[in-house]
Amino acid sequence: MKGWLVARPDNMSGDNRADGPRRSQQAPLLVAPGDDLGDSGEFDAGHGVLVMDGRLRALKQGRMNNRDGTVSIEPRRTAYVPRPSDLVIGYIEGCTSNIWFIDIGAPFNAILPMSLGPSKAEFGGIRKVLDIGDAILCRVQEVEENHSSVVTMKGMGLRAIRSGSVEEIDPHLLGRLIGRGGNNLRQLKEETECRVIAGDNGRVWIDGDLGGIIEARNKLNDLLEKAKVAEYGGVA
Amino acid sequence: MGGYGDVQCIDENGIRLDGRKIDEVRPMSIEVGVVPVADGSARMTWGLNDVIAAVYGPMEAHPRKIQRQDRAVLDVRYNMAPFSTTDRIRPGFNRRSREISKVTAEALESVVLTELYPRSKIRVEIEIICAEAGTRCAGITAASVALAHAGIPMTDLVVSVASGKVHDIVVCDLNKEEDNYGEADLPMGILPNSGELVFLQMDGDLSPDQFQEAWDYNMEAAKVVHKHMVEALKRGEA
Asked: Would you call B224 an interface residue with chain A, using a CB distance cutoff of 8 Å?
């Protein structure tokens, strides 16, 4: 890269290099797509980094990390990509006689076969069980090579969501919501006296009385604001 | 020196109607996150151009006939608002917007890692709120920032700039008068980190020397625009 300063481990000063001591007050190393991150001979390419012509290039906008010689990008925004056993909250988008199509916030809709539905349904009558627009708590059972996924509602706690509110946060902020050992989530539940279930796709189901739901939503918004401040170099 | 009929676009000292030198770009600003419901968005003002780009997806591609088994498709829609120019523009798609949507999609496809999302679609909406000159360049640039803001993996940003000829003088980043009364226009899409070209159109005639001059102006201007794009992305949402 020519002309202007970019974050790259091999041309940064000792105080500012990615693997140097970093205090929380220090501005994070923010990168944009295409930024040169260093020589691929010295560093390995991690998430969001591609090796092009012997150089590491950022693929996403976000914060650069360098851990154990692997340079990766912690993206500011990311699309959810389903993995088997993920707990997700989805919306029914359509159906045939024996299959529901579920929007799980991924680039591809998932399918929920009648046999994996919440209760027995008759062939052709599956809309009596789950109708278009309904929200469901389900689990990803299988992700095929062509990225299509199958979800199931057979399992403990998996159900149609008939009450409460579903909020959306970026999937990469789930760690902040849950906290170390689930502390933050537990605290949120205790303070608001609500049932809070965080899906791996960034959808959060909050169920309880109206005051509790509003309080939980406000706390979620606070979390997002804090995360934004932290990402842009402040102290969260 | 420099003029068309009564319209004098450049004075003897090489200063243009808007006070710029011939190799200077118009003032610009970029901000991201202007459309909260979109996955990524950007607003760019460039001279009097005002452009909003919003990105949705990747999402399942509908209708299914547009799906590609090995990659995502970029569904780009460039549109000028009816009030964006002094003459009212009839709402809806026309030949020009279809052409610009197509070239924009092709320029952006060269940097987006579409193979990561087979069978899906990334929807890019470009709306021209106010048009001066070079709206396709502003649209491509804004769309590129919006894609990066949406977290879509890209090998580089795409910077689009145009230079042209106004009575045998090659100038960088044409304004409205120069666009209307000039003789040639060379919009280019450039990958600033590698210097590769992803899009080039030429309207009018340029000699090889003039073409080279316009090319050089575009390459230099791309660095200025890229700096604004990166700053906007790093600054984040207001």
From this structure: no
pTM beyond 0.90: no
Residue A4 lies in a domain: no
Residue A236 lies in a domain: no
Q: In A, which residues are within 8 Å of B235 by CB distance? A: 232
CATH number of B28-235: 3.30.230.70
Domain residue ranges of chain B, discontinuous segments joined by +? 28-235
Determine the distance in angstroms separating the CA of A103 from the nearest CA of chain B, rounded to an integer. Answer: 9
Residues A178, A131 within the same domain: no
3-state secondary structure chain A: CCCCCCCCHHHCCCCCCCCCCCCCCCCCCEECCCCEEEECCCCEECCCEEEECCEEEECCCEEEEEECCEEEEEECCCCCCCCCCCEEEEEEEEECCCEEEEECCCCCCEEEEHHHCCCCCCCCCHHHCCCCCCEEEEEEEEECCCCCEEEECCCCCCEEECCCEEEECCHHHHHHHHCHHHHHHHHHHHHHCCEEEECCCCEEEEECCHHHHHHHHHHHHHHHHHHHHHHCCCCC
Give how far B67 is from chain A: nearest CA, Å: 11
- In this predicted complex, what is the ipTM? 0.87
Share of chain B above pLDDT 90, in %: 79
Please give the residue range of the domain that contains residue A53.
Answer: 9-75
Contact between B149 and A146 using a beta-carbon 8 Å cutoff: no
